[in-house]
């Protein structure tokens, strides 16, 4: 009898302790945009690092977390870091309105920055270990966050996005689709793309997040040209040539090519891969130094 109830309470106890994705209802968000914040704190936290995993269109924090192909839940359990999962209130992230394309502009990027600030305090994260990743719309938002909140983010690993500001809406619409950009017709000089980033946080002169950019060579949703445009953008921001210092074939996967542009920008061109390039946990964690 005693043993039975003890066993029952032990089972109950461990189930109650098992980590799960949890919503944070109040993350001190003063932005007008109100995306949801979800957090996963692994059972054993081994490192004071944070990874923000940003979902694609028609998804949510819960769907993205539950998706087997999205490896950040596994990464969190394995390496013992906290993950934050923003959840949009629109079909795709707002990467088109002035509000979201401006530091403290009140849009989705502002709200996600507030999630990061909340997480740093609440989960005792080292501000020098804040990492951002995402796929498709989440990759676009990763670029936008890197541009609007460079002071908060250490490194980014994004899969199949477009340059920051490429999805801008001429009418100022929030979360608008932009066919010119998605079709690969939004091309500009490196200087112009760099200016787009600098203008999102005028006067900022601190460090910028290190950028790892993945794109598939046969992407039918966000045209492959967006790879080169994104590389132009960040190499200009870091003031390095747009020609890689080295290109390694079959790295970090067969038929992928790793283009290096010094310590702060890395491109991974996935030959024969469409939309979206699958997350490569080991290579992204390595970029983060995790
Ligand atoms: C789409 O984005 C481009 C920049 O990439 C911009 O010039 C254009 O005005 C945008 N289109 C619309 C319809 O807003
Ligand atoms: C730029 O640098 C100056 C001097 O170091 C500093 O006072 C200023 O706040 C910085 N601007 C921003 C936007 O960080």
UniProtKB/TrEMBL annotation:
User: Which top class of enzyme applies to this chain?
Assistant: hydrolase
Signal peptide region: 1-18
Q: Which family does it belong to?
A: Belongs to the carbohydrate esterase 1 (CE1) family.
EC no. given is: 3.1.1.-
Query: What InterPro entries has UniProt attached to this entry?
Result: AB_hydrolase_fold, Esterase_phb, Plant_Biomass_Hydrol_Est
- Please verify whether the record's keywords include Calcium: no
Keywords, alphabetical? Carbohydrate metabolism, Glycoprotein, Hydrolase, Polysaccharide degradation, Secreted, Serine esterase, Signal
Q: Which Gene Ontology BP annotations are present? A: xylan catabolic process
> Any idea what job this protein has?
Esterase involved in the hydrolysis of xylan, a major structural heterogeneous polysaccharide found in plant biomass representing the second most abundant polysaccharide in the biosphere, after cellulose.
Keyword Signal attributed: yes
Which Pfam families does the record match to this protein? Esterase_PHB (PF10503)
List the protein's name: Carboxylic ester hydrolase
Compartment list? Secreted
- What do the Gene Ontology cellular component annotations say? extracellular region
List the Gene Ontology MF annotations in alphabetical order.
carboxylic ester hydrolase activity
């Amino acid at each position: 009898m005693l043993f039975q109830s003890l066993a029952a309470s032990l089972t109950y106890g461990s189930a109650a302790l098992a980590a799960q994705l949890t919503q944070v209802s109040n993350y001190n968000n003063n932005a007008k945009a109100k995306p949801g914040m979800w957090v996963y704190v692994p059972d054993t936290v081994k490192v004071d690092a944070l990874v923000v995993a940003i979902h694609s269109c028609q998804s949510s924090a819960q769907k993205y977390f539950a998706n087997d192909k999205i490896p950040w839940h596994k990464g969190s359990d394995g390496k013992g870091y906290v993950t934050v999962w923003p959840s949009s209130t629109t079909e795709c992230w707002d990467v088109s309105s002035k509000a979201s394309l401006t530091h403290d502009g009140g849009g989705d990027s502002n709200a996600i920055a507030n999630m990061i600030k909340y997480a740093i305090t609440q989960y005792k994260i080292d501000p020098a270990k804040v990492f951002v990743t995402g796929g498709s719309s989440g990759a676009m938002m990763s670029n936008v966050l890197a541009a609007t909140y460079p002071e908060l983010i250490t490194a980014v690993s994004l899969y199949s996005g477009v340059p920051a500001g490429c999805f801008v809406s001429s009418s100022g619409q929030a979360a608008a689709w932009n066919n010119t950009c998605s079709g690969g017709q939004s091309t500009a000089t490196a200087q112009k793309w760099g200016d787009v980033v600098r203008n999102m946080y005028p006067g900022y002169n601190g460090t910028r997040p290190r950028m790892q950019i993945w794109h598939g060579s046969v992407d039918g949703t966000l045209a492959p040209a967006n790879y080169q445009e994104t590389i132009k953008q960040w190499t200009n921001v870091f003031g390095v040539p747009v020609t890689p210092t080295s290109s390694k074939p079959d790295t970090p996967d067969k038929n992928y090519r790793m283009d290096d542009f010094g310590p702060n920008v890395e491109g991974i061109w996935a030959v024969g891969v469409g939309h979206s390039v699958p997350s490569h946990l080991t290579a992204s964690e390595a970029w983060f130094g995790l």
